[in-house]
Amino acid sequence: MKITPSTSPTNKKGNEFRVQLTVKNNVKQCQEVEITSDDNGFIKYLSGPSTYETCICTISDFFWDIYVPESTYLKASATILPYKNKCPDSDEPLLYGDPYQIYNVTHEINVTP
Predict the structure, then answer these.
(1) Which GO terms describe its biological process (predicted)?
(2) Stretch 46-68: mean pLDDT, rounded?
């Protein structure tokens, strides 16, 4: 699994941003994934949940609109959840690893107004 973050300002003051996280599944099986963003004291979420749970078969994009009064880091994570039942083929065995092991990829995004 690979995650690619990006940010873009959404207002003239430059303190509101749209954060996009692209999650790519690198295996030939759909994966049940939890997408989260770390809620630190400097980030206010303007829209959307800070956590998504979904099935990713190829590539999916997730968005958060945020407000930051000063420079901070947003930590975004994608975690494979092998024990959930969100994918149509979730009864199939995992193609790699322990079915009870949770696999996680995390990326810190610098957000500067």
Answers:
(1) proteolysis; regulation of immune system process
(2) 88
Give how far the C-alpha of residue 105 lies from the chain's centroid of Cα atoms, to the nearest Å. Answer: 9
Distance CA 58, CA 38 (A): 24
Q: Taking Cα atoms as reference points, which of 46, 55, 49 lies closest to residue 85?
A: 55
Q: Looking at domain 2-111, which of 1.10.287.1080, 3.20.20.60, 2.60.40.10, 1.10.287.70 is its CATH number?
A: 2.60.40.10
- Positive or negative, the CA dihedral 77, 16, 112, 7 is positive
Q: How far apart are CA 79 and CA 50, in angstroms?
A: 14
The phi, psi pair for 13, rounded to 5°, reads: -70, -20
Asked if residue 95 lies in contact with residue 78, where contact means CB atoms within 8 angstroms, the answer is no
Secondary structure percentages of the chain, helix, strand, coil, to 5 = 0, 55, 45
Q: pLDDT band for position 100 (50/70/90)?
A: low
